[in-house]
Amino acid sequence: TTFNNKIGFAGSMFSGYGLSYEYDLSRAFTLEFTGSIYGTGGTNNNTNNYVTSYLVSTIGTELQRNFYVGHDSRFYSYVGLGFWIDNTNYNNDYDNNSSNDTYSHETDYSAGIGLGWEYALSRRFIFNVEGGYLYRDMYVKGTNYIYDNIFGRRIEAYADHTYYIGFGVGVGIYYAF
Questions:
Q1: CA dist., res. 81 & res. 97, Å (int)
Q2: pLDDT score for 46
Q3: Distance from C-alpha of 22 to C-alpha of 142, rounded to nearest angstrom
Q4: Residue 137 has pLDDT above 70, yes or no
Q5: How many Å apart are CA 65 and CA 77, to the nearest integer?
């Protein structure tokens, strides 16, 4: 019996990280979706009196083209796309007279091509590794609200746009059904 569905966990510079689902479209093609969302509404530590909240989410996909499919392994090429968002609020309030607040928003887009290898550890448990050529576009913008006893409130805005072109990797472990 051949299993066309796989569910598990994956981490990839191409298509994100988190819960992952693979579906064999045919003997030649496999489609993968990966995503996660996590964060916190905030913490309050009485010693330092700080509050932090963040929300991170990733989503991505890969189209995989099989070169070799054997009984317990397969070798494939892929095209991967991913989108990542990271929002963070950070508040320092070390005393009642001054406070520094920071908000940052980061978005990353990734795309790449590469080669992967998948190996069945048993009939249903599967491990994969992949590597390839990656383009990653990263944009961070934010605002610092600075409160000073002498100068009062001051706002500093910042933005940074960078990119990465080079080698990327990914791994995953799946349960086939």
A1: 47
A2: 47
A3: 36
A4: yes
A5: 5
How high does pLDDT run on average in the chain? 89
pTM across the whole model: 0.84
* 164 within 8 A of 135, measured Cβ to Cβ: yes
Contact 76, 118 (CB under 8 A): yes
**172 contact partners, CB below 8 Å, separation of at least 6:** 8, 9, 10, 11, 12, 20, 127, 128
Domains and CATH numbers, the chain: 5-176 (2.40.160)
- The partner residues of 87 in beta bridges, in order of sequence, read 55, 105
